[in-house]
TrEMBL record:
NCBIfam families to which the protein is assigned, alphabetical: Rv3131_FMN_oxido
Database matches in PANTHER family: NAD(P)H NITROREDUCTASE RV3131-RELATED, NADPH NITROREDUCTASE
Region Disordered, residue ranges: 301-321
Protein name (record): Nitroreductase
Amino acid sequence: MSTTFTPAGLRAAVAAAIRAPSLHNSQPWRFRLSDGGIEVRIDPDRLPQVGDPNRWAARLSCGAAVFNLRLALAVAGTPADVRLRPHPHDLDTVALLVPARPRPATPAEQDLYSAIPRRHSNRRPFWPNPVAADARWRLIEAARAEGAWLEMVIGAGAVQTVAEIARSANRVLERDCAYRAELTRWIRTSPAVDGIPVEAGGPVPEPQDLLPQRAFGVRTRAPGRDFEPEPLVAVLGVQGDSATDQITAGQALQRVLLTATDSRLAVSMLSQPIEVPRAREQLRLALGRYGTPQMVMRIGYGQPGGPSAPRRDVDETIDLA
Ligand SMILES: Cc1cc2nc3c(=O)[nH]c(=O)nc-3n(C[C@H](O)[C@H](O)[C@H](O)COP(=O)(O)O)c2cc1C
């Protein structure tokens, strides 16, 4: 096993990295490759300016990409030492990954790595079956292993409270014409390399919906067909809200999402209550947690397969040092 990353290994790792989730599938990342490693940077030209004015979403997305890089490099036999924000004065450089001592990948790394191409957001209704206790526990452990917490919202009253916070955040965002126009710009009705294809968008929202799905889809529901009545809602959070905390949250988010895929669970994300500062604080108080919520998720058993969002070509995201 090599003590340096090989060019082919680096490219394969970036191919895994770009499968990470991102706000509106904006893919706000660049990867600078050199003999010494991979630098992950925010691409300022790809940010949803209205939806992500402070680059919270870009840091979460790049953090998720870092987690995929870690898995790919570990599975290739040379894991990475990761330095978050290696140039403290440069806010756009998210992480530097350099070769660590070679070792065989663990079975857990192999399982999560193989889940990368199977993971995608599922915005459709899930089956009503409750998520098994051991699967919930695996998700909580996945967040903890990356220095984050995952709070499962338990009980109909608590779910109602979180849902009301999310709906009210959605109303605040929807009142802003610039926000609505930006959201529309990321919806794709014909083949594209970014944005959200309407087929991946889930059914058109209806007034009785408990959770506010973003209106990416065009399909209306058959009469009486609703979302699962008691969704499993979980909130991911970390200790603070610095740039480093947000990158940490991104890595934890991806570990949770891949663990869910590995447990045959489907997930959709709802970030409206994170994007509206007052809603985020209400959410934190409702959970009774220190630290900051970074993502809300709906988790359940969905139909396998389903449409996934496209990605740009891997070579378009790479800069060679
Ligand atoms: C920071 C962040 C915020 C997101 N917010 C939402 C959201 O509010 N609603 C939603 O349906 N998906 C949300 N997503 C999921 C993205 O739309 C999705 O990851 C992207 O379209 C790529 O698709 P994929 O997850 O299927 O690979 C979010 C993802 C990230 C990383």
